[in-house]
Sequence to fold (502 residues):
Amino acid sequence: MIAVILNKAEYEYDVHSLVKAFFPGIEVNIYAPIPDEKTGTGARSMEKLEEFYHEAEIIVDYDFQGNKACVAIRKTGRDENEAECSFEIAYENRNEARNVLKGNIYKLLAGYTKKELPWGTLTGIRPTKFALNLLEEGKSEAEIADFMSETFYTSKEKTMLSLKVATNEKKLLDNLDFRDGYSLYVGIPFCPSTCLYCSFTSYPITRYKERLDDYLLALEKELAFTAKSCRNKKLNTIYIGGGTPTTLAPDELDRLIGFIKKTFDLSYCKEFTVEAGRPDSITREKLEVIKKHGITRISINPQTMCQETLNIIGRKHTVLQTLDAYELARDMGFTNINMDIILGLPNEDEDTVKRTLDWMEKINPDNLTVHSLALKRAARLNIFKDDYKELTFENTNTIMGMTQKCASNLNMEPYYLYRQKNMAGNFENVGYAKADKACIYNILIMEEKQTIMACGAGASTKFVVDGESYRIIAQKDIDTYIDNLDELLNKKKLKMEELKWL
Ligand code: SF4
Fold:
């Protein structure tokens, strides 16, 4: 365990994420002068330090006095410091103070561990945010690159990637009047089976057959409420995700998409995506329904083209089913197909990833979304980790580079990027797309450019007002969602009134 002791309760979360990034797999605890009831920031109170001090192998000690700060690293039981630094810090400007603090801790830890982090001090989920903001302010690419590497210590490679993504995002956003609009997310929280790494709201469809009709009725009620509440706003994009929306039968899919089309004004809608997702749920009849409704973009997600891995992760479909579903969709005339792959899957290495990428180059999708496996607390892989001790997880710079090369061979450009906690290799998720095939919804949600009204169990509505975001998350449990829907709608209504977002 690593104990980080802050003598001032500031930036606890930032410091925790940064130290954790240097020591993946090791527990990092922050101790700060805060009362016990305020430990929601991820820090523990100083009283707790007494209790746990003996468990720490390394202590990172931060001492702030006046406008001077000092950070020291020492091993427990030793008096002398392994490394230390001191610097000036002015807390009046919070953002600047954060950068100074993180920058100094970064340099100290990089020297101590002899390790550089590709994203430097950028530990949040949106590393392209700064590049995009600066582009919007009219800064040149060279100025932004200098700012990022000098302030956040990002590697040259990641600085260039952020710039590329931000430039592509800006081009797409410049063509959209998103400020006055909103997007709609519709969640179908059912899947054919549960993947080993899944932490989304998803339940095996077979268990909920009996309540499916009730779920669709509740969802329609929430959709109708949303359409009515947002009648003065322009609906820009729609995304039906999950779960796996194509676990619905053709008539259920028809009913849902038909309901959306008749309930919302789609005159300003630029994009309508259905995340078909699991290849084992895709049939000609379902694709016919999707096509009939004029859906512009679908997703067919292999995650890997290695059968051994698919068996381990419990996706219960074959490589052949992915190929068949893709071919069927192409034959039926779908012209914007996304494929998701995941890096860092159990027992995969450069050779297996290469096999997947070779397939991608052969079949030639329009979008390729590359995820780095993130091990979430709720995933079976984490809950039952003792059962999976034999598995290995590998993601490297070389593998990330291979995916970039594959996307470039497919004439794709990176257009959105985000990070999650506990990602394999501390890397990122990147969406690549061919010209005019990028998913605008992905940019709008990731860059928090507009409000996303989300409907369905576990769906997260995000109101974006004056650059700030406010979330309301629906109940994840299907029965609770159905039974307490009015409560949720009331909560949304009150939030809209409070934010004057109507
Ligand atoms: S397909 Fe996606 S949502 Fe469904 S179980 Fe797998 S990871 Fe979870």
